[in-house]
Amino acid sequence: MRHGDMAGGTTLVAAGIVKHFQGVVALDGVDIALEPGRVTGLFGPNGSGKTTLVNCLSGVLTPTKGTIGLGGTRIENLARERRARLGLVRTYQNLRLFPALSVAENVETGLFAADPALGGKARRQLIDEALDLQGLRPHAHKAVSTLPYGLQKRTEIARALISHPRVLLLDEPAAGLGAGDWQSLVESLKVARQQMGFAMLLIDHNVAFVTALADTLTVLANGRVILSGEPQHVLANSEVARIYLGDAHAAT
Ligand SMILES: Nc1ncnc2c1ncn2[C@@H]1O[C@H](COP(=O)(O)OP(=O)(O)OP(=O)(O)O)[C@@H](O)[C@H]1O
Ligand SMILES: [Mg+2]
Description:
9 helices; binds magnesium ion
């Protein structure tokens, strides 16, 4: 596909991202780099700025300050559709599906930024591939609103995968999922990453879920990166342990 030009190196680089909402400083100078084939897990307490960062990267919000580069192109002033066309794709913390449409039709909406010349057969192939990646083929023709929550979450992820993203930003994909569901989501995301080679930013409060996928962990607090690095190193930090894993873990 279009985004097959994934030579090595950094795909997405954000530098000095600041976002103010009236008096609230949601982001206070965040630097983050996402690399092809690698998963960066992003932790942070409620209100620490995780979704605001995804909103700034994806073009839902304009940062107050800072630069964002995608494969060497400056994108911080581009509309979100332009960013999507460049391969920057995200999901939302709250489901944003079209309830009256089928699973397959919802997944197909993820092709909104695709080449308009894409033929019907190629579209169907992409839909089937995305459905298969998320185990949704048996549900393809059901109205998405009739499915359990876990399958609706998977439909959102399939909609993001259908365009073969270069950078995938997932905001709490495992929220509300039971253990079996998030574990199978881990496996499906591993397969998708292997096939597509995208860079991924993965936000979730489920530490086991994020660490099952992440090559790097970054921790936000009050709109600043307080720690970033190898997962083992970050999880061994006593402040991170206190915030996320409880004092019992910090003491072990
Ligand atoms: N559109 C907005 N208008 C005003 N304030 C906002 C807006 N969006 C976010 N904020 C504020 O910015 C801060 C960061 O919020 P954000 O949603 O990015 O946090 P988060 O880390 O995603 O939290 P959670 O874990 O609860 O999803 C919070 O203080 C929030 O109230
Ligand atoms: Mg959030």
